[in-house]
Design goal:
The chain is mostly helical. Helix content is about 70%, strand content about 10%. The protein is built from 7 helices and 3 strands, in the order βααββααααα. The protein has helices spanning about 10-20, 25-50, 75-100, 105-120, 130-140, 145-170, 175-190, and strands spanning about 5-10, 55-60, 60-65. A hairpin with a 2-residue loop joins strand 2 (about 55-60) and strand 3. Helix 3 (about 75-100) packs antiparallel against helix 4 and helix 5 packs antiparallel against helix 6.
Length: about 190
């Protein structure tokens, strides 16, 4: 890639600070490595698809790799760029599975990769699952209808995450990640 731009969303900074204060290093480091693996999958597929510019932003849901003119690309390229991160997380899971039984870091990395793979596969804007679905529906001319359904799905996922965060706090397992990701996902879904 000839041009990278890296930035931090203000909510991403809050999330990172909270994670550094609350999450043990033995869990935080594998999560960061898993996010880097995931985004590297996007960047590699962007390079394969001849995308020359990339903006990487740290958000409450981790890094987000964006390309200029993403929706001007062919549906096939959009699909593979979105799928690149999910595939990289999946490959990371498989590799970590070989070592997870005997190595705590590999186990935590396996868990983080699996979480990223599953979460990013959700059909909620702006997650990879929604981008893959939009690319597939663009091939049959149903992209606009799919966008409306995905926006509703984004709000439902955001509400579910917030409710799960409130419930976890009520039972004594406070997870501020859920309370931050839910509203951000609703905001990001609306603006994407």
């Amino acid at each position: 890639m000839s041009r990278y731009r890296i930035s931090v969303h203000p909510a991403g900074m809050v999330m990172l600070a909270a994670a550094c204060l609350i999450v043990p290093v033995g869990r935080l480091l594998p999560a960061v490595v898993a996010v880097v693996i995931h985004e590297a999958g996007h960047v590699i597929t962007m390079r394969i698809c001849a995308v020359e510019r990339c903006h990487i932003e740290w958000t409450p849901v981790g890094f987000v790799a964006k390309t200029e003119g993403f929706y001007l690309l062919s549906p096939s390229r959009r699909f593979w760029i979105a799928a690149g991160g999910v595939l990289a997380s999946g490959v990371g899971c498989l590799i970590c599975l070989l070592f997870a039984a005997n190595n705590r870091f590999a186990y935590e990395l396996l868990t983080a990769n699996l979480s990223l793979c599953l979460f990013n596969s959700l059909p909620a804007l702006p997650l990879d699952g929604s981008k893959m679905l939009l690319a597939l529906t663009a091939k049959v001319g149903l992209e606009r209808k799919a966008e409306k359904l995905l926006l509703c799905s984004s709000y439902a996922v955001a509400a579910a995450l917030c409710l799960l965060g409130v419930w976890s706090a009520a039972v004594g397992l406070l997870n501020p990640t859920l309370l931050l990701i839910g509203p951000y996902l609703a905001y990001a879904g609306k603006t994407s």
